[in-house]
Amino acid sequence: MLGYTSYYFGRKKAYTIQSTNKRLTALPQFYGYYLAIWCAIPAFIIYSLWAIFEPTIVKLLILSDYANQGYLDDELNLIYEKTKALSRGQFTGEVTSLIQTSSEKYLNLRSIAQSSKVVIVLCIIIASVAYAYKRISSNNRTREPVEKFFNAVLFTASLAAILTTVGIVFSLIFQTIDFFKVIPLFDFVFGTHWYPAKAFVRDSSEALDPTMYSDTFGAVPIFAGTFFIAFIAMCVAIPIGLMSGIYLAEYASYKVRQYAKPLIEILAGIPTVVYGFFAALTVGPFLKDIGTAMGLEVSAESALAAGGVMGIMIIPFISSLSDDVITSVPQSLRDGSYAMGATKSETIKKVIFPAALPGIVGSILLGVSRAIGETMIVVMASGLAANLTLNPLESTSTITAQIVVILIGDQAFGDPKTQAAFALGMSLFIVTLCLNIVALRVVKKYREKYE
Amino acid sequence: MRKNGVNMIKISAKNVDVFYGKKQALFNINLDIEENQVTALIGPSGCGKSTFLRCLNRMNDVIDICKVQGEIVINDFNINDKGCDVVRLREKIGMVFQKPNPFPKTLYENISYGPTIHGMAQSKQEMDEIVETSLKKAALWEEVKDRLHEPGTGLSGGQQQRLCIARAISVQPEVILMDEPCSALDPIATAQIEELIDELKKEHTIIIVTHSMAQAARVSQRTGFFHLGELIEHGSTDKIFKNPDNIKTQDYITGRFG
């Protein structure tokens, strides 16, 4: 509100100057923004500094009374916490006079701080606005500082996004390194037994014994499970997605396309949890029944159910992306082919498909990276036992599902079991990163070809 | 086929109307195209000359809302009949477009595309021959014979357009339709294409849509002038350019409008 008021004043003064027939160096709004920024920024900085330092200072002031009475640091902290609790009315223990007095003092200090904060911030707003207001004159530049300010805001926003990413990656890396200090990389990458539950039974007072884990964190079964389920998913998604994409782009009339495309895109909007219980409660038992009827032994939580449903989830990605890619193949190529006497299917097979291939490959790779990163469907429909198997009717597990298993419930930091989650996350990250990079490269290359 | 002076009539359009949705684009066009001659269709933009050209190989089928009425008789056969096989028709009537549109394949595959889909070559050797003769006829062989397996999109604009002409003649069409084939090319490439057109008319009947009056005068023997969807006047190029009957034709040719 204050910001808006100062904007208004700034603009008004600028109009006044303008009306006295002096030329301004910027539009009146800029003077308004200029003033609003001067109003907000210094006050905001002071306010945040205050908020950061206030508790510390209050604590120091209260505890200074007891500083020389021979209390230990821990006891001082306890007194302070009790004081705070009492002043909030949440104290349940015995109220001693010491705590009573310090609590009163605490409340007193807080109210002083509160009002002085308001006063100071207001003063600063008035001072800085007054300063900026005085600086508004016909030859003072305001456009540059305002533009610089917006530049800085946008820069900060993108910096925040980048820093968060970097932070996540680094925490992944450090935890992964810690994990590999206990579990040899070789065992992780080539071991074929994955029983992280074994790490539970360790008595925490015992020293860490790496040999104990030698066949606990072998990630081969879950890597294999991940790729296997992703493979099943792509077996479903690629043919259906691609064909529906081609149909939509080339054959469907305008009307059909108008309705079919949004319908397919609805599939993309279904939450994966819903897909998950669809797989676990509908598809899984259904497959089991069919299998039993055919005399096959099918686990209720089979890789086939998870992979198949995951494939359905990915269909809209592939269909919609390949539709876009095919539609963007220039009409002139189609005309050229038709003019040679080619039929529609010949044109699609020999001209359009090869021309669109890089884009289609890109969409498939994006689909694969989604399949690998998918969690809920696997957790719900394919079980959590990390079997090393290539039988689609048995249950397997994936990287993401294992991370869920490891991190559900209480866990201790620095425990190899927890760190195993980071190691898995790291490997997942590397795989999907590579896939995405390759996919984006391919798509970009395709774009360049036609622009 | 009837006799008309010296030349045979190759294509004969009778009462052709074309509609785009509700809008009529061509009104009652009657035009005879003579065999082994170059016929130029001229007229201001949007006059329907390209639409007429696309009627001749039924390329308008590709556009959903486009409807063609009337008779277009080629070799005593009305191509607007239901029984007409569009694939055979387009084999007989090739087309070159305004913008060079080579397929994103190698030069060789660009040429062999038509012969392959029409099953014209029994062996690799025959195909090699077709590719070579087509490129030679399109005056491109000498420039590209060492790089037949490089992508066709890597050629210059003029070369690409000659590649498209080579692609069109690879299936030995009787008629070649050209829709402003030089509008995207520089004068030198244009001159090469015009020379080529002159050469090709010995074996093919050529219909060319062009915006350049000078080009029409240079390459064609017959000219038709379209205006607002109607065929205003047609006849020998000499007559149209030197002594047109219709005042509109004269105005257009002398650059007073359009």
Could you describe the 3D structure shown?
- The complex is a heterodimer of chains A (451) and B (258).
- Chain A is mostly helical and 451 residues long.
- Chain A folds into two domains: 2-140, no CATH class; 211-450, MetI-like (MetI-like fold), CATH 1.10.3720.
- Chain A is 75% helix and 0% strand.
- Chain A is built from 15 helices and no strands.
- Chain A has helices at 2-19, 28-64, 73-88, 97-135, 143-182, 185-190, 220-251, 254-269, 272-293, 303-327, 331-339, 344-373, 376-381, 399-407, 416-450.
- In chain A, helix 5 (143-182) packs across helix 15 (416-450), helix 10 crosses helix 12 and helix 14 packs antiparallel against helix 15.
- The radius of gyration of chain A is 33 Å and the shape is flat.
- With 258 residues, chain B is α/β, with parallel strands linked by helices.
- Chain B has one domain (3-253): P-loop containing nucleotide triphosphate hydrolases (Rossmann fold).
- Chain B contains ten helices and eleven strands.
- Chain B has helices spanning 49-56, 86-92, 107-117, 124-137, 141-144, 157-169, 187-200, 213-219, 237-242, 247-253; strands spanning 3-4, 7-20, 23-34, 38-42, 66-74, 77-78, 93-96, 175-179, 205-209, 222-227, 230-236.
- Chains A and B meet through helix 11 and helix 12 of A and helix 2, helix 3 and helix 6 of B.
